[in-house]
Amino acid sequence: MGDLRAFFKRKGGGDAGASNAPKSAKTFAASSAGGLSGALNAVRWSAHHDSLLARHDPASAPCARVAAFDLDDTLQKTRSGRPGYAVTDLADFAPWSDAVAPALRAIHARGDKIVIFSNQGGVKGAMDGKRAAVVRARIDAFAASVGVPMLAFCGTQKGPEKDPRGYRKPLPGMWEHFARECNGGVAPDLDRCFYVGDAAGRPGDHSDSDRAFARAVGVKFLTPEAFFESPDATTRGEDAGEKSETERRPDASAPTVVDLVEDEANRSGSVEPFDREGTP
């Protein structure tokens, strides 16, 4: 599974069969890395505006109830301890905990639509480059291992010049694209949706960008610990309409969405201290 050399030789080309992908978008077949086959063959990826990668799975039915997740340090971690953006060996990626796959299967069984929203800044604008290939392959492999349909959206650029549509979290552009283009015309019921992510503004967190993303979208926010360590997988996120005061008002000492946006707008190209996920 870790050897992507053959995969890298195959550049993604225009594939008009991409499910739900706008005609103007560049499309890619699902990764064949690791010998994945079967239902995965129907999955397609598309690239938009050189700043968004989108995974389309026709088995993921339109739904008003969305269970949304971050990727790094929420659904997956690395065995080596290296940041996900620095890893090319798919075998280094592992579930964040043993509870991840059973929880996702349980919420899929109750009817939720599973969607990943992740910053993957290492891709930048190279939608068919090596980093993009790793991102697509790791998400395809993760989805196949869990065995349930899921969509994924990855913001790849930083700052208003390269990301004018605000795809990068904490801005809500990825969610807006999903809701507008990739849910079969069904509007998400925000009171019944939630987002799980590790960047919650807690002491030791790299930012509050996941919490701020959930706030910008208007859905409940949960940390991986709160979600995956819940004693009953069948009730996870079912109180999604009940946003607590803590969720509405994060730690004032943590960087806010305004801080992060202003920081990106004024950035001179140095490494971001608050964007460890998917950032070289």
* Structure classification: alpha/beta
What does the overall shape look like? Answer: globular
Taking strands numbered 1, 2, ... along the chain, how are they ordered across the largest sheet?
Answer: 1-2-3-8-7-4-9-10
Order of helices and strands: HEEEEEEHEHEHHEHEHHH
Strand content: 15-25%
Q: Total strand count, please? A: 10
Kindly state the percentage of residues in helix.
25-40%
Low-pLDDT ranges:
1-24, 33-37, 241-280
Major β-sheet annotation:
8 strands, mixed
Mean pLDDT: 79
Radius of gyration: 17 Å
How many helices? The count is 9
N- and C-termini, Cα separation: 23 Å
Secondary structure elements and pairings:
Layout (H helix, E strand, L loop, with lengths): L4 H5 L16 E4 L14 E5 L3 E5 L9 E4 L6 E3 L14 E3 L4 H10 L3 E7 L10 H17 L4 E5 L3 H4 L10 H9 L12 E3 L12 H9 L2 E3 L1 H5 L16 H4 L8 H9 L15
Parallel strand pairs: 4-7, 4-9, 7-8, 9-10
Antiparallel strand pairs: 1-2, 2-3, 3-8, 5-6
What does this entry look like structurally?
By secondary structure, the chain is of the alpha/beta class. The protein contains nine helices and ten strands. It starts with a helix and ends in a 15-residue tail after the last helix.
Brief synopsis:
By secondary structure, the chain is α/β, with parallel strands linked by helices.
Question: Which descriptors would you attach to this protein?
Answer:
280 residues, 26% helix, alpha/beta, disordered N terminus, eight-stranded mixed beta sheet, disordered C terminus
